[in-house]
Amino acid sequence: LMRDSCERRDQIQIGQDPSAFPFSILPTTMESLKSAKQPGEQDGDDSKRARFRPIAQPPLRGKGSEGTREETDTLLHTLIDIDVTENELSHNDFNAHNNINQSSRPAHTTDKGIPEPMSLKASPTGARLIHQADPDGGSHTSRNPQAGATLSKRKGFKRLFSSSLGSVANALGPIKQVAETFVECIDTYQVAGKAKEEYDELVARLETLLDDLERHLGEGCEQSMTASMNRLCKSIEEELEAILVRDKSGKSKLKGSRYIAADEEINAILTCYRRVEGYLERLSLNANLSIWRIAHDHATGYQSDRMFSLIDRLPSVLAARFNSAEGEALKRRECTPGTRIREIAQVLGWARNRGEGELYWLNGMAGTGKTTIAYSVCTGLESAHMLGASFFCSRLRAECRNVNRIIPSIAYQLARFSRPFHHALCNAIEKEPDAHGGALQMQFDALIKDPTLQVQHALPDELIVVIDALDECENKESTRRMLQVLLNESTNLPIKFILSSRPEPEIRDQMTERVKSRLVLHELDKGQVQGDIERYLREGLAQISPSDAQIAALVERAGILFIYAATAVRYIGYDNFHRNPTSRLRTILSGSKDRINTHITETDQLYTTIIGAALEDEGLEEDDRVDIRQVLHTVICVREPVTVGTLSELLQIHDVDRVRAALRPLWSVLHVVGEVELVTTLHASFADFMFDAARSNAYHCDANRYNYELAKHCFNRIQRNQPQFNVCGLESSYLPDNMVPNIEDRIANEIPLDLFYACRYWADHVEAAKCTLALVSELEDFLSKRLLLWMEIMNLKKETRAGMECMRLINRWCNVSLCV
């Protein structure tokens, strides 16, 4: 037997998709094992004949790897469950069973578009043969589920599962609830009439699937649940609950056992059971792949570190996940309880309905609450184990506005969501290690499309990916191409995408033509939106108990823009409502309304009120006003959030407290986060306002002129650095950086944040300054005297790709500015 197994193992190669595994190997081995006596078994002792249940497993051996027969023995005992049981079927039961027609039942398609699994004879997993003892000493292979149904009627389902639920709960906890609900369904309903035979067959197959899961997961196998497996369990529970709660006579739960005779109700119940069977098959594939990994690691000593290292190669942006720590710093949050309920329900309803397309567009003008709604949607999807991945774009972080980081990040999160996808993605990365650096179509095909199609039979029906604020990506052409890839490929995948953005031209033109499912926030009923804004204002201003008239006035000024309400609450409640909040409320409400009463002018007026209060305070000196204006313009022009210390160094304001003092009156529109005091704008609409001279008037920020100032600050900061060579004091140039002791500490100490910002973004500010010839002398000095220092710093910070992009920007700027 061992020799036969050793010969067969060479046919198996690691790295295959589980669905491509040559299942014929295992049944052949089972035939050799089924008649073998177990330890302590005597001839003719039929009551202790082993019952074998081979389950579908991925391949076990690495290509070209060597192993001992002891390892093979370990693998076989892991793969083959040897369960010594009583002889539960009588000789007459087997005679009756042998006369049963062996033909498989035709496949069906459910109303959700899920193919009904084939009969046990041709199960998609290739793993449903059940070997049971023959009283005469032979062995019969049960291929027809009616034998299982006969057994079920004799034992009763409660008795069948009573001994297994505890062990299943230890391996896959949610399966316990599934099994209990299944028992309740069987006890509640019994089908009569012509559908009885099909009903009994379905019940028997479901019994077998649950029994297999218990048998192979409940005995000493430590099993972790992925989000994909949790979602499958949830889908099963929903189907079984639908059986228990039939829409008949007021949707009341049925009590006690009853026979069902109505064809319509019978068909509905059978359809639910067929979907349950499909979900259980997928759950089995997920679980079996995990067991294969455990068995393979145990037998060969090979750990899964290699596979995780492959996934970790992807340039995933953890900060772009909806609930990341960086997202909290950027003020991402859920909707206030009781608000945007209809909008969130509409998006979640689309996500659960497979018949409404593969792409949903949540769009609205600036300040309508898109990101907050998208966050709430992600929270709902995650709690239902439906969220495969999320990517929240943001112009405030370089990695979150880079279109080329979206697909690798989604692939990384999907690998965490589903173990089969993780396996397929590892294979894809091994075949194409640099796929993440290719064109967007190449990235999508290699990292998402191909792995997903390989394991789609193991994924839940509801798998959602959310991409928020796509309009905040920095390259409009890349954004257009990204949309094109998603629109072209989403129809062929078992994944649904939710996108949110402003209706910018490069997005609107494609989405309007090809996406039917959408929610346009600025076109919603004004009264409905204002009701939510009123609830938000009452909660946010509860400490000062504003009158109904004051709340109504604020609601009217907000129109449909949540950002107005959010900014007003921050301004009035500044310093935890300790800075005369009642007076601040009156200041907002007394603002002039002479201009045309549009939503945008109301928000502009609010921004104007806040900046005016900061700059026109009678207690300020002129130097204080200069500091406020300089700090404000720097914050809205920098390419990523910077700390208070970085602002101090870049602007050469040597007293950090002066920077803090300049920021303090601007906290209603700027956000200072955490102990490091990271400074960001509260909302993208504020920067839009400041850059538009027609809207901000005297407070306008000239982007060209101020980027020129920032470019000079960057050059000056690099020039001031000492030393100008070997900044980390490395002892030898022959030793690779990764072999230098304490290299990370040296880099952190010798390359402060402000120096790194100057090295990373000087070219961006030069390019944004457009054709400013006054920068030529600074650029010439940098390229002739500071270039090697800059290259050294970028290399130590592992930003060589960003360095190449800097050179491309400068080359383009020179062609435009100097070749005239």
Helix-strand layout with pairing:
Elements: H1 2-9, H2 25-34, E1 50-52, H3 69-79, E2 82-84, H4 91-98, E3 130-133, E4 139-142, H5 145-155, H6 157-162, H7 165-171, H8 173-188, E5 189-191, H9 196-217, H10 227-244, E6 258-260, H11 263-300, H12 305-312, H13 325-329, H14 341-352, E7 359-363, H15 370-383, E8 387-392, H16 406-417, H17 419-431, H18 440-454, E9 464-468, H19 476-489, E10 496-501, H20 505-514, E11 517-520, H21 526-540, H22 548-558, H23 562-572, H24 574-577, H25 581-589, H26 599-615, H27 622-637, E12 642-643, H28 644-651, H29 656-663, E13 670-673, E14 678-681, H30 684-691, H31 693-696, H32 703-720, H33 743-750, H34 753-768, H35 776-796, H36 800-817
Parallel strand pairs: 5-6, 7-10, 7-11, 8-9, 9-10
Antiparallel strand pairs: 1-2, 3-4, 12-14, 13-14
Describe this protein with a few key phrases.
globular, NPHP3-like_N, disordered N terminus, NACHT domain-containing protein, 820 residues, 36 helices, 14 strands, Rossmann fold, alpha/beta, P-loop_NTPase
Give the structure's gist in a few sentences.
By secondary structure, the chain is of the alpha/beta class. The protein has 36 helices and 14 strands. Helices cover 55% and strands 7% of the residues.
- Shape designation: globular
End-to-end separation in angstroms reads: 83 Å
The percentage helix is 40-55%
Oligomer: single chain
Radius of gyration: 33 Å
Q: Count the E strands.
A: 14
Task: Give the rounded overall mean pLDDT.
Answer: 74
The helix/strand class is alpha/beta
User: What number of structural domains do the residues give?
Assistant: 5
State the major sheet: 5 strands, parallel
What strand line-up does the widest sheet have?
Answer: 8-9-10-7-11
User: How much beta, percentage-wise?
Assistant: 5-15%
Low-confidence stretches: 1-172, 247-261, 298-303, 593-598
Number of helices: 36
